[in-house]
Request: fold
Amino acid sequence: MTEHFSGKTSSLQLYWDAHSLATFQQCPRQYQYRILEGWTSQHNNLDLDFGLCYHASLEAADRARFAGAGFEEQAAAALEVILNYDLSHCGVTKEKNRFTLARSAVWNLDFYQKVPIQPIELNGKPAVEIPFRFEVDLETDDGEAFGMCGYMDGVSQFADAIRPLERKTTAKSLAGWRHGGGLSDSGKLLFLRAPGGTTDSCTDQ
Reply:
């Protein structure tokens, strides 16, 4: 995280990820405590853990698909992640628990069987969970550049085109997503740089 900050101005963040942006937009004081001073909550965030586990399970399935695995092997790879993911520290709800995680992952894989999302090859590996970092047209008085950073969920061959992929879990309709209405802040910038991205989503219900 230290590489995201200025080497000349104390506590000045130069490279911003989606979490930092969202925290600052929600409450600048919360940003100070969490991002700048490193405070953490005593309670884990179930929504965050649910999303992280869902992403990790589909990443495992993507890697299996890239290696030539069929549907059952992909599902097994995803379920192995879910069954071994530690949810004991954050509690569960009727809508978000290990069963609904497994159901969401399997539904996703089943839905895309006919038109699969096939990860492309990048440096000999599947293009999943790709780190990115780029400068924007803004700099400090000392000449240090601001920028965006984070991770892309993937870059895949889908519907006869190569498209960036962003996955979300939500209990709400995603009617406006394909116009960028529900993307993360970093996701919006990436989609502006790479038009035609697909949003792969599941519902919590």
Summary: Helices lie at 18-26, 28-36, 46-66, 71-84, 98-111, 185-193. The CA atoms of residues 50 and 146 lie 31 Å apart.
